[in-house]
Specification:
Blueprint lengths: L2 H42 L11 H40 L11 H31 L10 H31 L2 H5 L4 H39 L9 H18 L1
Helix pairs in contact: 1-2, 2-3, 3-4
Subcellular location: Cell membrane; Endoplasmic reticulum membrane
Keywords: Cell membrane, Endocytosis, Endoplasmic reticulum, Membrane, Receptor, Transmembrane, Transmembrane helix, Wnt signaling pathway
Main location: membrane
């Protein structure tokens, strides 16, 4: 075998091992986030949710909804922690450039994590969360055989109709605003344009809601904290309190 072919084979083998390592690291990170989110949801949920259901079918539906919600929360937590993880990994690589054991914190891993988070965020936003909500509310079509699959069919149909309704409203709005064939034709590029725009718009709405609710939350938190905590009496003037007590005693004595 020629040296050039050996080098190319070695490069392909190294690339294959890097891909396998990245997949293992991503799977371990997501499994850790999923377990953490499962404990968080089961800690804050009501004791009657997902467990105290006498019907086996309802219990299975609630467990599936719990799994979908846990998956979505894990993706959201991964999206929040991805930027700090990228910054920390870059600083670690700059601090220890020759260390063999931390070379897996490379740009390819971070880029792959960003792509996976963006993909699963759109999947959770467009499909998983609406499916979980409609799945818990579904009962199956009238006249059909009861079971999990009947609920799955009803949820899929409702979700498909909702998707067509949203796409139709967007199409009409785009036609009214653009009023040309290019604006209507651009709706066919759904995956390339409109899903990122939808994700960005919902993210912007979440940020605005956070900015709106944060001051009220902080004011409520400080109000509740002020009611629960006892104010310190180290700086109080005892002579002033004694004089006030004497004045109150004198006023009560005159009334008597």
């Amino acid at each position: 075998m020629a040296p050039a072919e050996q080098d190319a084979l070695a490069a392909r083998e190294q690339l294959f091992h890097e891909r396998i390592r990245e997949c293992i690291i991503c799977a371990l990170l997501f499994a850790s986030l999923y377990i953490l989110c499962h404990f968080i949801i089961t800690h804050f949920k009501k004791h009657t949710d997902f467990t105290a259901v006498h019907d086996d079918e309802d219990a299975a539906v609630n467990r599936i909804a719990l799994g979908l919600c846990t998956f979505t929360l894990a993706v959201a937590l991964g999206a929040v922690l991805l930027l700090p993880f990228s910054i920390i990994s870059n600083e670690v690589l700059l601090s220890f450039p020759q260390n063999y054991y931390i070379q897996w914190l490379n740009g390819s891993l971070i880029h792959g994590l960003w792509n996976l988070v963006f993909l699963f965020s759109n999947l959770s936003l467009v499909f998983l969360m609406p499916f979980a909500y409609f799945f818990t509310e579904s009962e199956g079509f009238a006249g059909s055989k009861k079971g999990i699959m009947a609920r799955v069919y009803e949820t899929s149909v409702v979700l498909l109709l909702l998707t067509l309704l949203v796409l139709g409203m967007v199409w009409v709005a785009s036609s009214i605003v653009g009023n040309d064939a290019a604006s209507r034709q651009s709706l066919y590029d759904l995956w390339e344009y409109y899903l990122p725009y939808l994700y960005s718009c919902i993210s912007l709405f979440g940020v605005l809601l956070l900015l709106l609710c944060t001051p009220f939350g902080l004011s409520t938190m400080f109000t509740v904290t002020g009611k629960l905590l006892v104010k310190p009496r180290l700086l109080e003037d005892l002579d002033e309190q004694l004089s006030c007590t004497r004045l109150e005693e004198a006023a009560v004595s005159r009334r008597i």
